Amino acid sequence: FDIYGVTKVTPRVYGRYFFRPKSKSFLIMGIDFFEEESQKNLENLIEDIDVKAFLTGNNMIIGEGVKEYLKNNFYYKNYKFMTPKGKFIDVKIAKIVPKETRLLANDMIIMPIDLV
């Protein structure tokens, strides 16, 4: 690695997803959960998550701000994301990020990298 102190790099995809009806956007992070370091970080962040079960379907982990927004718009268990091709992907809310991470993860949606 060329940057002093950097010993490992983990691929990820990120961007903002725009919710048109309310002019709101959230940060979406696509992470490679098959990569060992990403899996460890997720397990440290959310103690009771079963990573294998999380990866078996279209699942997401969301921050408190995302949870409140979805709840206020009657999305309690899942959300249908529109793809750039105009198709919809139904994604289940698997977990909520702990409130202690609100400063960093309030508006965050975490999904497997291949789903994003």
For the secondary structure, the number of strands is 6
- The class by helix and strand makeup works out as alpha/beta
Q: Could you list the spans in which at least 5 consecutive residues all have pLDDT below 50?
A: none
Number of domains: 1
Q: How much is the radius of gyration in Å?
A: 15 Å
Gap from first CA to last CA: 27 Å
Mean pLDDT equals 84
Strand content: 25-35%
Tally of helical runs? 4
Element pattern in H and E: EEHHEHEEHE
Please state the overall shape, judged from the principal axes of the Cα atoms. Answer: globular
Taking the sheet with the most strands, its summary is: 6 strands, mixed
Spatial ordering of strands, largest sheet: 1-2-6-3-5-4
Helix content: 10-25%
Provide the fold topology:
Blueprint: E1 12-19, E2 24-31, H1 36-45, H2 51-55, E3 59-62, H3 64-72, E4 78-82, E5 88-96, H4 102-105, E6 108-112
Task: Give a verbal description of the structure.
This is Cbb3-type cytochrome c oxidase subunit II CooO. It comes from uncultured Campylobacterota bacterium. This protein is an alpha/beta fold and 116 residues long. It has one domain (12-112). 24% of the residues lie in helices and 34% in strands. It has 4 helices and 6 strands. The chain has helices at 36-45, 51-55, 64-72, 102-105; strands at residues 12-19, 24-31, 59-62, 78-82, 88-96, 108-112. The protein has a 6-stranded mixed β-sheet with strand order 1-2-6-3-5-4. The longest helix is centred in the middle third of the chain and has 10 residues, at 36-45. The radius of gyration is 15 Å and the shape is globular. 14% of the residues are buried. The mean pLDDT is 84.
